[in-house]
């Protein structure tokens, strides 16, 4: 069964407590937390204090997606705030191998996010060091965008690379995931589905999470 990671970017920031409680009680596995700096992406979201506060009541894995420049400056801060999985962007990392080791040395799982234009083969030489590849299926910066269909080919290619190298890397799909495209994403080889608007715009978010969870069956 896939790992389901609702994206808090689409939650109601006035009632975060209610949305955290809903995820705690749902079949979701992870909280996906999008950190944006207005430099790597043309938008600013939330950061360390919000994540640290949420951690006090959230009962599931914190999957933190850093859409920031110079992410390595903040690894320790995000570890302290409660990140369990910490993803940096390939495009924002000059020394990716070093960053992956640094994230793991702080006790977190190491993730690499790739933009839609970044080919998966660029990860070949560090694949065994990556716990999660966060494959962007929209351009990062905003929730509620349309899924880019080329993602299916990229998932299949990455899956082949993972099998070939004997790595245990998870493939996470981020952006425009719906109950409709989830089965095809899972068939292509996805392991983790991030869903923002699909979950939080639903009249019944817990049921939608359940539907995503069952999507591969
Ligand atoms: C986009 C973020 C996504 C976003 C997904 O930059 O990385 O995690 O919250 O939102 P939806 O699922 O609404 O496309
Ligand atoms: Zn994200």
What does this protein structure show overall?
With 217 residues, this protein is an alpha/beta fold. Helix content is 32%, strand content 20%. It has an eight-stranded parallel sheet. Helix 3 links the parallel strand 3 and strand 4. D-xylitol-5-phosphate binds at residues 7, 9-10, 32, 34, 65, 138, 140-145, 174-177, 194-198.
* Continuous helix count: 8
Instruction: Look at the structure and give the mean pLDDT.
Output: 98
Distance between the termini: 8 Å
CATH class reads Alpha Beta
Unreliable stretches covering 5 or more consecutive residues: none
- Structural class call reads alpha/beta
Tally of DSSP β-strands: 8
Quickly count the domains. 1
How much of the sequence lies in strands comes to 15-25%
- Distinct compounds present: D-xylitol-5-phosphate, zinc ion
**H and E order:** EHEHEHEHEEHEHEHH
Structural Rg: 16 Å
Helix content: 25-40%
Strand order of the largest sheet: 1-8-7-6-5-4-3-2
Q: Would you identify the CATH H-level superfamily?
A: Aldolase class I
CATH topology tier name:
TIM Barrel
């Amino acid at each position: 069964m896939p790992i389901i990671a609702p994206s808090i970017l689409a939650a109601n920031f006035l009632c975060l407590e209610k949305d955290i409680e809903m995820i705690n009680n749902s079949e979701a596995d992870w909280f996906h937390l999008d950190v944006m700096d207005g430099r790597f992406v043309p938008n600013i979201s939330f950061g360390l204090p919000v994540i640290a506060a949420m951690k006090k009541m959230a009962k599931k894995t914190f999957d933190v997606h850093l859409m920031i420049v110079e992410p390595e400056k903040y690894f320790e801060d995000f570890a302290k705030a409660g990140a369990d999985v910490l993803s940096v962007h390939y495009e924002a990392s000059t020394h990716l191998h070093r960053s992956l080791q640094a994230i793991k040395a702080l006790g977190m799982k190491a993730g690499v996010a790739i933009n839609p234009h970044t080919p998966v083969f660029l990860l070949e030489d560090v694949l065994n060091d990556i716990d999660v590849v966060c494959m962007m299926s929209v351009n990062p910066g905003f929730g509620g965008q349309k899924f880019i269909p080329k993602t299916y080919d990229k998932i299949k290619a990455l899956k082949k690379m993972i099998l070939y190298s004997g790595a245990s890397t998870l493939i996470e799909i981020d952006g425009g995931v719906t109950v409709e495209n989830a089965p095809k994403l899972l068939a292509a080889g996805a392991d983790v589905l991030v869903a923002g608007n699909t979950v939080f715009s639903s009249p019944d978010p817990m049921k939608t999470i359940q539907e995503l969870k069952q999507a591969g069956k």
